[in-house]
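Can anyone check this?
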Amino acid sequence: MIPQIHEQGSHTPGLLYYLYGKGTHEEHVDPHLVASFDGMSPDPGRDATATKKDLAQLLDQPLYLLAADQRPDKHVWHCSVRAAPDDPILTDEQWADIARRIVAATGIDPNDGAGCRWAAVRHADDHIHIVATLVREDGRRPDHHRSGKRAQAEARLIEKELGLHQVAPGDGTAAQRPTSAERHKAKRQGRERTAREELRETVRRAVTGAASDEEFFDRLAAAGLLVRKRAAPSGDLLGYKVALPDDVNKDGEPVFYPGARLAPDLSLPRIRERWSGEAGTDQTSGQADAVPTGPTSPAAARRATASAAWQAVLVVEHGDDGDAAAHIAAAGEVLDALAKTSAAHTRRELRDAATAFERASRSHVRAVRGHDRALRQTARDLVRGGPALGRGEDGATTAMAIDMLFFLVTATAHWHARKDHAQQAEAAARAAEHLRTAYQESAAQPLGVLYQRGRRLSRPALQRQAVFLRETLPDLAEQILAEPGWYALAATIAEADAAGHAPAALLADAVGSRELDTADSVSDVLVWRLRLRTDLPADATGIPKSRTVRSPATVRPASSRTTTAGSHAGEETPGNTR
């Protein structure tokens, strides 16, 4: 149940005409009063003799206890209370009780005998609107400070008592929701999302991997946004605001939103924190020299993303809170970059994952920037590498990167849960589900190729590998051998062996570095871990079929072989836990 305090107004009749009207698209059905301050207020919806003007005059009477110059300019308090989509339809009596509890909790009518006058109107199954006049019966102003938080707290109690969907409590770090006026405007214009939501996503993507003010503003302009900058008398840049070219007000002027009104971390000072720890940053101007990197391909950027994401998993699970928060925020940039450059068949799920994770990227734990540089660089490389084709090595490394990011997002959900960040934990869990679907869509083809390659191994070779697996991983061997993915793993072990790696050491390290109890397919997990560690092509179609493959039974001892080129002690490559 979501109570929302709307901007205060100055015209009670105007709001009542809207609430009792048909709505902008005739969505208001049977508007009527469910409760009021005295329980006897006229109801223009059900009483043919009552008018909206009658109700407005009754609510506004306390205003006239004050001299004209003492009356508040904006005296109309407006709160909507909306049930969750999966909640049962509540009765008028239940909504009446909810309205009375909300006005009491917010200080509008605290049951002290001299509260404000108010009325609750219902014109839909799932919500009510409460209208009040911000002058008490005794002429004093009500104590409704922080009424939004007080209404939210009361709503959490109501949810428990009525058995409704329980909304995770907020902590003030969420992005501002679109107003009802913005939602109605978007609907009139045929937009799927409000201007605020479109701008937030566009600005968020423009920040992804950016290294300076100049680069950030260039990206905003390239995205087609109107940008206005705010400068100090000295010329130093202080802030910015953006608008959609076709989103105008009644005077035909663009509607601008400051970055901080889009999301708390999209103000210019907070954006500059992202590159403040990077080499070459001017701390006074927020300018930074981009880290010089050579040309990068989509596949190379995705392979680097997989490696950096795993290092971030270790930080989130075992690092300091400030470092963990920085890596979580940087993970949001990586998801945005991956969604922006993904192939069509995974784009929607990756975009939804990035949108969901946006809420998980902020908390009251302040990010300590600098150590997240590698993860931010992969976001930059993904953008520079451009769109992936979704097939071949591009498609396979996309699956590898998504697989790793799933682990990072899951670790983020656990981190937030440990700190009682309920909304962030829930958002990260939603993002993980979208990544799960995106992974399945991207991994089917490359794993299918590996499966066929494994099926083409000779029966004696497969039998020897099965024996080798039972000797190396006795606790997991039978489970792996029963999975369809066993053939893809067999092919990967054979390729790693032929490339000069020690399969026994690789398998033991891949299994020992992290639990596999949550994996739907242990063999799939091990395929990606081994291929990333050994730098094998993620797409096996490029491997010659004629390559000679030795049986693991004939390899030299692990102590005399290279295990993983460029690997680090204790490092792990997570795989599919879906």
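Reply from J.R.: I decoded it. The chain has four domains: 2-162, 193-276, 298-443, 453-560.
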